[in-house]
Write a structure and sequence with these properties.
There is one protein chain. By secondary structure, this protein is mainly beta. It has one helix spanning 60-69; strands at 8-14, 19-22, 28-41, 47-59, 75-88, 94-107. It has a five-stranded mixed barrel.
Length: 112
């Protein structure tokens, strides 16, 4: 069970084309967001749609696959782990980011 301690599995649609970053070390990063949707009925019996947005980061070979095949709107399955970090923006304000670091990715839908 130790491998279940920090595990995320999501099915969603890309909100944007992946942003590709090539590092000086030769490594490649793909950053993108995916939307997951949930619907439920509120107290009045009305159907409510709830969309959650998730920041996703893929490294190296997975980033190359994302660069080549992923486009805005594409439905994918990702499995990975949560990662949190902080940084200072240009104004010196400390910002916090939580991302999903992809370990496995599966593209759904028809080939285009």
């Amino acid at each position: 069970m130790s491998n279940l301690r920090n595990k995320v599995q999501l099915i969603g649609h890309l909100g944007n084309d992946p942003e590709i970053i090539n590092l000086e070390s030769g490594k490649k990063i793909a950053k993108f967001s995916i939307a997951t949707n949930e619907s439920y009925k509120n107290e009045k019996g009305e159907k409510v749609e709830d969309t959650q947005w998730h920041n996703v980061v893929a490294w190296n070979k997975t980033a190359e696959i994302a660069e080549k095949y992923l486009k805005k709107g594409k439905e994918i399955v990702i499995e990975g782990k949560l990662s949190s970090r902080s940084y200072e923006d240009k104004e010196g304000v400390k910002r916090y980011v939580t991302e999903i670091v992809v370990q496995e990715m599966l593209m759904l839908g028809s080939k285009q």
